[in-house]
Prior knowledge:
- The protein has 251 residues and is an alpha/beta fold.
- 49% of the residues lie in helices and 18% in strands.
Amino acid sequence: MYDSLKAELAPMYRIVCDAAKRLSAEPPSAQRWIESWKAEAKLDGDTLKASVVGPIGPMFADTTAIVSAIKDNEDAKKIEMTIDSPGGNVLMANTLYNLLRSRAKVGVEVVTMSGGVVASAAVTLFLAGKVRESNEATMAMIHKPRLTAMLVNVTEDTFDAEAAKEKEMVVAGTKQIGEVIVARTGWDAKKTNDYMKAEKWFSGKEMADEGLATEYNPDGQKPELDALEGIDDALMANVEHMISNLDMEAN
């Protein structure tokens, strides 16, 4: 019963389980991949250089390490943070965001830089920067937060009440994330809600065009965008082929 509830309440649950099964076939590479997930910060002169790589969470990229480093280095004049994360724990992202914004208010220069992906809760971290740099090899995504798998520990008698609390938390989280986006990008509430509902993805250039990033720093020549037109059909055909192969492997 609870397996089905978890699948319904946490859409990512099955995906994570499937991914874990596939990764278990190659434990060395899986281990290296997981070990690359980390959050860390180091003082370099008067600049605190931080990075968030991988999912944000206590067992993954634990951003409390960066929170501690910022508090331990209050004399730092600049904070640079590179973010390469698909998202994760909203509450941990909020804590670091608020700390970064508080440092900016007392004159610390806060710069955030995109890695390969800045999605979900990682967008909150990215928006903490006064200067926010994207590049051509970046994708970003915003969406409404999802239900978690916190309900796995409840009993059948307490499930309805706990599910109601969970829904209330998600509604509040949606408002909170939307308020951050509106405040930092200048979007209106309708645009923000529409993009979050659509789970909108952005290229690095689109991040700057839309105001998620304040600067777009491509490495080298800008591509001739006209040459990229018409690739959507071919790309989608390739994606569908890959999904088909994965389904066959799973079966």
